[in-house]
Design goal:
Blueprint: E1 2-14, H1 23-27, E2 29-46, E3 53-57, E4 62-66, H2 79-92, E5 100-106, H3 116-132, H4 138-152, H5 160-167, E6 170-176, E7 180-185, H6 190-199, E8 200-204, H7 212-222, H8 228-248, H9 252-267, H10 276-288, E9 290-295, E10 303-308, H11 313-321, E11 326-327, E12 338-341
Parallel strand pairs: 3-5
Antiparallel strand pairs: 1-2, 1-12, 2-5, 2-6, 3-4, 6-7, 8-10, 8-11, 9-10
Domain GHMP kinase N-terminal: 82-169
Organism: Vibrio eleionomae
GO biological process, one term: GDP-L-fucose salvage
Length: 342
């Protein structure tokens, strides 16, 4: 038996960072995001027991094998693959081992700011859901993916990525204490999406980074009352409301202006969010005619989103091509995680 799954990566348009505990537990968080046509992919083959368990991450050239077992130690490489297997066996297969060969690959590298790690967890979970015909809702899948990453693997991070890729499309998300999440799907007219795509450029800086340090700095700032970092978090959340309103009203120029404010506020959350090379990139693209830019994700590298008047697009792209990264073509997508049997 063979099953496959794929899940879309996401752009964090506004509010990123307010979905991280303890900020969202204390103040409530809100995030505006949208999925794009870049994916994390998974294939699971059900094999004979004597073939054991094999995980193959094709994009990062890592592989793991073990004879058939109920629990795999969370150490070494491919921790997420191991943790998903452990949870599925424990919670959904009566502690009976599953002989599988799991292949994965992502359209974006780890640490790129598009939620690739969380998206991969959701994709693997969706494939197991298809394999075992599990009655899991979208909320169930997203919450389980969050628990696997943040609790089982102890990786720092927020909650938006798991929900964004599971639900798909444009979503305004609210985060509260006790891991309560409300996903509000937004109905965006095609004309608005077309205009948004015409004015946006997605650019990979060429630098992948670990978000853990940046997130840990944000958490430290949240725990310090009346700190500049906490004030910046409040501003980031406020701007997510305003960005949602601009999007729904097709005010793309307003979104571009809010990007400037959101980027300034985001940089105030941690000193590691921007770097000298990112600052130079910003100077170059604004001089070339871009209206605004902002990192998508925790910061420090990864992908950058730019707003640009379409008549200046070629000039901005020409400037970007002089730098060390690459322009990433994309379209917004309305579908979340999908799985099917071959």
């Amino acid at each position: 038996m063979i099953v496959r799954a794929r899940s879309p990566l996401r752009l964090g348009l506004a509010g990123g960072g307010t979905d991280i505990s303890p900020y969202c537990d204390t103040y409530g968080g809100s995030v505006l995001n949208a999925t794009i046509n870049m994916y994390a992919n998974c294939t699971i083959e059900l094999v004979n027991e004597d073939a054991g368990i094999t995980f193959i991450a094709q994009d990062i050239n890592q592989q793991y094998y073990t004879p058939i077992c109920v629990h795999i130690a969370l150490e070494g490489e491919l921790l997420l693959h191991k943790a998903v297997y452990n949870r599925i066996v424990r919670d959904y297969n009566q502690d009976q081992p599953i002989p599988v060969k799991v292949y994965t690959f992502s359209d974006a590298p780890p640490g790129c700011g598009l939620g690739s790690s969380s998206t991969m967890v959701v994709t693997i979970l969706s494939a197991y859901k298809e394999l075992l015909k599990l009655p899991l809702s979208d909320y169930d899948v997203a919450k389980l993916a969050y628990e696997i990453e943040r609790i089982d693997c102890q990786f720092s991070g927020g909650k938006q990525d798991q929900y964004a890729t599971t639900f798909g499309g444009f979503n305004y998300m609210e985060f509260y204490e006790n891991d309560r999440v409300i996903v509000n799907p937004l109905r965006i007219r095609h004309a608005i999406i077309n205009e948004l795509e015409s004015q946006m450029i997605l650019y990979f800086t060429g630098v992948s980074r670990s978000s853990a340090k940046i997130i840990d700095e944000q958490i430290k700032g949240t725990n310090a009352p009346h700190s500049a970092s906490l004030d910046s978090m409040h501003e980031v959340k406020r701007l997510s409301y305003a960005m949602k309103e601009c999007l729904l009203k097709s005010d793309i120029d307003g979104m571009s202006e809010l990007f400037k404010q959101a980027w300034t506020a985001k940089k105030g959350m941690s000193s590691s969010i921007s770097t000298s090379s990112i600052d130079e990139l910003e100077d170059r693209v604004l001089s070339a005619g871009a209206k605004s830019m902002k990192i998508t994700g925790a910061g420090g590298g990864g992908f950058v989103m730019l707003f640009v008047n379409p008549v200046n697009r070629l000039d901005v792209e020409s400037t970007l091509k002089e730098l060390n990264g690459r322009i990433q073509p994309f379209h917004f997508t309305q579908q979340g995680t999908q799985s099917w049997t071959v």
